[in-house]
Amino acid sequence: MLTEFLSVLCLGLSLGFEDEKKNETLPKPSLSALSSLVVGYRGNVTLRCQSHFQNVTFVLGKLQDSRYRQEQRSTGHKAEFLLTHLEPKDAGMYFCAYKTMVSQEWSGESEYLQLKVRANRLIFAATFSCLSISILFLAIFFINRCTQHGSSHGDPTKRTSHSEFPKQEATGEW
Questions:
Q1: 33 & 115 share domain
Q2: Is the pTM of this model over 0.70?
Q3: Of all helices (H) and strands (E), which one includes residue 21?
């Protein structure tokens, strides 16, 4: 009877320990960039997520875009996510999380990393130049229209004197 009691007690304790383990939350991972977090237009950056455990599945997410999600399995403690051909729309707050093969529940999110993507100065300069040329063209066009329109309302005697010029030439009078 004592052996049955000890068996049941050990079984109960081990089941309770497993339940406790399931309720434990996994420690947050850390997220870092392998280079600068300010990236040029169409540039690349690698984000590294690290956990305290091996054999985990990592996920990289973006705070402003719930649909953004990259998953990666790792036998080690870390995973590296390469972000390529970045554009201004890719800027934002990134985070990572992980789950172990045993727990199948996601850890808490890492601290957020703010990724910035600089606009290409050449594109900005070209856009500014095209805009300036367009405004200049419109200004010349309107000035020309206003000048032509304004000259038709001039002094009618000036037009008469010009129209008499050929008559004076024909009579030979100067």
A1: yes
A2: no
A3: helix 2-23
